[in-house]
């Protein structure tokens, strides 16, 4: 029986207590990780109090400014990336020593690959990308805000609640052991009566709803909030990919919600959706999950493609080659992504005809992707290329991502898939697309847009070192997994008996250490750049000779983004304005600007959602019911509170905007040669090159 | 918002004879809600798909012929279709405002409450049908078929319940704060939601109930 007050929660559920009662290496590692949660929480509280930052802290979490929300998403993702990198390294090092048994217990290892996958997809990659979309898209389309600012805050809150659940599972209880895909009936209540699968269901289910709402928000923002003259075929490529990603979020997240709800009903109320007996059908779960899961990989890669397009064009000072082709390819990929989900279970017994159809559909995706790669290459061709940090990531991406794509083409062939599915070949493949694609895209984007977010550039030396370390670490870690897979080593293997695996496994383990080093270097890049922020400032806001509208504002961009909404008459409107010398001309008339005021709405909802999730995981019914009612009451109360607007007087806008324009007109600007030096204050002097 | 109607690419919705910028606000707000509904439609689609693949998963338990009461389903359908009509009347009240006439708030509240009443009638019959089915040996835990049936129909029921709750909040809102722009937009979104539930019900009616008995 479950306790009416504490549910299934007992002292023994707390990992630190387990360590005291049964000290061994596994509990030492888990409790070490778990101990970081209370220690981190206390540290944050002390730090906020010591620095007297509570007021700005609440200013941030109640903010509905899309730029601040974007920064919070990225901060959240960096923290979660820390956990993901540590787990990944731990697994690789374990496997390097796992001939006839390594140092981790199998249950511990199972939790590691489950949390690593779940965490990296839902709480690292997606928040990173959604954060970048938040920061860049409204600026790129010349809007003051997103369509639904309060909804944006709620989405962040839901993502945070999911992150809370997966994090707290480290300290209290356990996480699922069934992999990030969580297949029943392994995750059903019969096999797995513990709290692990419930943590999995609720953390991704709740954050999934947040992602759906983000999709709605940005699709509407891009459809309805574009500035005058910003026609579809004039939108920057990142905005295009953000639009396609939003549509994918809208259509692909509901299957995930549905299969989480059904699995929850099976576990909590004894339904028979996916059970082995009584008419349950676990293939339904697998179909639903991959109907979400396949588009998901394009949710992860498309925004990164957008970033690569922006960077290729900016850092070669050329118009993007084949703009129309890339847009069409993006749309093609979005549509095709819904037609291939079955390739995730070629070996599960459907007819050869079905397998052939889905194999061909999968192969087709490589065509638009290839179009893009050639377009980027052609963009660089004959351009004024600067080999800055984002360009290093782009170069790594070109070579490695194409390799990953090609190994995907191999896997898309059902006959070959029969040989290599569930082997390390697959692990190598998807890391080979997700790291060079998504992660490098994200890191490049952080370097690219960091000056826009905070008003100062990241240090170039540290950035370059970090980039090389990621690329080198990736190659060392994941490329050996291809031959290992072909040698027959399966994935998610806690130990093995074939000594032939050892050399490559050791190389891979060493590579993982390089990836950890890369993460540390990334933090160091942030830290050293913050220390040197005075020298690295770029208040005028255009450090890279940018081409799109987000560079046409001061850095960091003011709350209202644009004092006067820009009018667009071409692609790369800002470049045109700079060439005509009209970019920083004085403006005659300023108007009052209305901006949405801060609100606690999303924060309160997020707290209740955390309570709901935690209560459900532990069968603490009073907490779950009270939190659920809390959510409903909050929504009703806020329906009665009209959303408040701050009015920013025209005079203040004039003061800020005129000062910025004057400074830009009077400055001489720097050439591209001095781009990475301290002389770069964010005013670009474009090269005297014909714009081709 | 500094954009005027002439500048806008999207003319917006007609919320009455003269609403100025309300039209523009409505455009984004209602379009956004439509997009959200499309997402919800996918969720229903998933439950439909699982139901479709479970129609033979009876596991020796009762099937449609033993469980369904078509008379009651007909009543539910009637209640829901009528409520769609009355919700439409409520929205028409918004449009029928004239500059020289007091806003027909009483009429609006009347149609909204009538919709709630019909919705409650629907829910009452649905819940009593569920109780009957359980009594006839068909609780959702009996078989895969029944699990998918209960959750598909139940998901729709949960939506109807939230629609009713939402409508009551709207009534309270317009009584407390008047029919201001925010509540007008809420009514428009709620109406989209309510008609949507009607359409989903028609699919459930034909696919689950008629389909099960034929």
Automatic annotation (TrEMBL), chain A:
* Keyword vocabulary terms for this entry: Copper, Electron transport, Heme, Iron, Membrane, Metal-binding, Respiratory chain, Transmembrane, Transmembrane helix, Transport
What SUPFAM superfamilies does this protein's entry cite?
Cytochrome c oxidase subunit I-like
Assigned protein family: Belongs to the heme-copper respiratory oxidase family.
Q: Does the keyword Nucleotide-binding apply?
A: no
What name does this protein carry? Cbb3-type cytochrome c oxidase subunit I
Ranges annotated as spanning the membrane: 28-48, 69-86, 120-142, 154-180, 200-225, 237-265, 285-308, 320-342, 354-371, 392-412, 424-450, 462-482, 502-527, 595-614, 620-641
Q: Which InterPro entries match?
A: Cyt_c_oxase-like_su1_dom (IPR023616), Cyt_c_oxase-like_su1_sf (IPR036927), Cyt_C_Oxase_1 (IPR000883)
Its domain of life reads: Bacteria
UniProtKB/TrEMBL annotation, chain B:
Instruction: List keywords of the entry alphabetically.
Output: Cell membrane, Membrane, Transmembrane, Transmembrane helix
Q: Per the record, GO CC terms?
A: plasma membrane
Transmembrane regions: 31-53, 73-94, 106-124, 149-175, 187-210
Q: Where does the Heme-copper oxidase subunit III family profile domain start and stop, copy by copy?
A: 31-213
Keyword Transmembrane among record annotations: yes
* InterPro entries the UniProt entry points to: Cyt_c/ubiquinol_Oxase_su3, Cyt_c_oxidase-like_su3, Cyt_c_oxidase_su3-like_sf, Cyt_c_oxidase_su3_a-hlx
Q: Which GO terms describe its biological process?
A: aerobic electron transport chain
The UniProt entry lists membrane topology as: Multi-pass membrane protein
Q: Which GO terms describe its molecular function?
A: cytochrome-c oxidase activity
Entry's localization field: Cell membrane
**Pfam families found in the cross-reference section:** COX3 (PF00510)
**UniProt keyword Transmembrane, yes or no:** yes
Q: What does this protein do?
A: Cytochrome bo(3) ubiquinol terminal oxidase is the component of the aerobic respiratory chain of E.coli that predominates when cells are grown at high aeration. Has proton pump activity across the membrane in addition to electron transfer, pumping 2 protons/electron.
Q: Can you tell me which family this protein belongs to?
A: Belongs to the cytochrome c oxidase subunit 3 family.
Task: Describe the protein's quaternary organization and the partners it interacts with.
Answer: Heterooctamer of two A chains, two B chains, two C chains and two D chains.
This chain's protein is named: Cytochrome bo(3) ubiquinol oxidase subunit 3
Can you name the source organism?
A: Puniceicoccus vermicola
